[in-house]
Amino acid sequence: MPNRLSKEISPYLLQHAHNPVDWYPWGEEAFAKARSEDKPVFLSIGYSACHWCHVMERESFESSEIAAVLNNDFVSIKVDREERPDVDSIYMSAVQMMTGHGGWPMSVFLTPDGKPFYAGTYFPPDDRHGMPGFKRVLGHVAEAYRSRRKDVQEAGDEVQRAISEGVPIKPSGNPADHESLERAAAGIAKAFDSVHGGFGGAPKFPPSMSLDFLMQVANRTGDSHPRRIITRTLTMMARGGIYDQIGGGFHRYSVDAKWLVPHFEKMLYDNALLARLYTRAWQWTKDPFFSRIAMEILGYVAREMTSPDGGFYATQDADSEGVEGKFYVWDRAEVLRILGPDDGRVFCALYDITEGGNWEEKNILNVPREPASVAADLGLTLDQLAQIALRGKRLLYGERAKRVWPARDEKILAGWNGWMLAAFAEAAIAFDWDEYLSVARRNADCLLTRIDAAGRLTRHARIPGLLEDYTGVAWGLTLAFEATQERRYLDAARALAEQIIDRFEDKDKGGFFDTPTDHEKLISRPKDMFDNATPAGSSVACDLLLRLSILFGEQRYAEVASRAIEAAWPLAERYPSGFGFLLGVAEWRAGQPKEIVITGNDENFRSLRRVVGEQYLPHRVLISGTDVADLPVMEGRSSSKTMAYVCHGYMCQEPTASPERLAELLR
């Protein structure tokens, strides 16, 4: 018989709708029951693409024995962290505080007023490998709540106070200037793995935001060391098993140091950040390998992760048929059968496909050797090798499509969509490709439907927007304006920016809260400043506001952004790898962004825009088209005549209609 989760729309919650556990969704009903029956709350938080969330469900939440204990002694709440990152953020802080680490599935025990007093992540059903079994944990927690109530309440009060107070931040006295930004870059670079790329050892996550910041610093200083870090890491990641060599797109992370064995789930946010990063790396280096990877990521998203109305789906699962990675791995005999003996032999040599396999007797496709070396060994040219690889990938993709696909979480989360919109918009300009423009326009239109008459944004379904959503959507719409020249996107972004300042800004300390002033009351109002797997909403807000301050000549936006950067700066100085996106925004603020205006609407207009797209200009705003006459930067300029204007450092260059001259001005 289904439980209460059967009425939810989250795929993750629906996965648990037939558990024997009497699950409640997050809400007052569950806490009211806990208060009336004087029971502790068991809060379980996860997401649909989380492998160990599925394992704990199979082992514990489908167990009638464990369900009986939960139903008798606890009120159980299940939360999809992608729907409610505000709830996740608060209780993840508690888990990290109490255990020294965090992750999903998250298992937290609360008093009926929501205060956490005991926490963990994955628990096996019985004691195993030095880990306490979930049955034993439930027994101890229930007994503690019955017999040591005062201790439980004091522990909950203490954790709540610690969460509410947050990380103590002492002003450093150092400004976020070029010198301090270069120190931050050097701090990040210390952990560089010169062999495999990336930072540190296993496990390895794609460091997209840190690499983007290093690229900005290297571009300004000309320092060759950050350049080596960036190009090595981007190359090795894209040649590794963490990258889907057949279908495009990156998996979540690598369990080893050399990017071979991934956790196979694919997240929209990773691919948004990485598509944008590889696009910008191509602009910077002109390496066609980087443009190919950017286009493959975007092709994967357009093909497999886009809804009929233009929204982007959230995730693809790691498992298919209950086995992690089964969809993505290959036998050598299978590859030879599909590609034929000649192409198959070459393909296997390039992609490390052997009889014994490189992971659990199967093969994860990766490119451990330089393609030029493989081609030389096989007596082929690089072009011949590339053609065989392309044919092979097309055939294997068709064969793989016949397999049981991993589950897809079809939530369309506003903030994540904004990040992917930004990636498509920047790629549309960089590669001058109308298909990306079409995807960006459809997604932007989809996101506009999430904004109501009062200017309030919906995150997903009935869930109100959080800072991540307002900033992500507004940022994406601003870049969509640059790509499409449709003014309605820019005006919508500005309206959202006003909401951000009015309802999210911390007027006392600077920065932004994750929840608005009128949000549901939680045990704490979260204010996450770290750029972790995703950029902090505060970091994106700063980028957005600096752009809008130039576009609308609104100094107030720049002042709010500057206060937020300075508020986070003491932490960013100490932990630069945790602030990659914010450091990039600080690099923008410390420099002199280029203001580029292209007017008109003829063939030469497109040639001028193409010149802008081909350049690596990390700190620029682009105003183009005919519907911009009222913007301050257009004062004294005609929007009908085709012309390019470049201003930098409060100085404007002579206007030009020549693409060649524009390229010189931008360089």
Shape: globular
The number of distinct helices, counting runs of at least 4 residues, comes to: 25
Rg (C-alpha, Å): 26 Å
Strand order of the largest sheet: 1-3-2-4-5
CATH topology name of the largest domain, in short, is Glycosyltransferase
According to DSSP, the number of beta strands is 18
The level of helicity is 40-55%
Structural class: alpha+beta
User: Main sheet?
Assistant: 5 strands, mixed
What CATH architecture of the largest domain do you see?
Alpha/alpha barrel
CATH class of the largest domain: Mainly Alpha
Average pLDDT figure: 95
Span from first to last CA? 67 Å
Give the number of domains: 4
Query: How large is the share of residues in beta strands?
Result: 5-15%
Low-confidence stretches: none
Provide an overview of this structure.
By secondary structure, the chain is α+β, with helices and mostly antiparallel strands. It has 4 domains: 162 residues, 3-Layer(aba) Sandwich (Glutaredoxin); 226 residues, Alpha/alpha barrel (Glycosyltransferase), CATH 1.50.10; 168 residues, no CATH class; 76 residues, 3-Layer(aba) Sandwich (Glutaredoxin). The protein contains 25 helices and 18 strands. Strand 10 and strand 11 form a beta hairpin. The radius of gyration is 26 Å and the shape is globular. The relative contact order is 0.08. The model has no long low-confidence stretch (mean pLDDT 95).
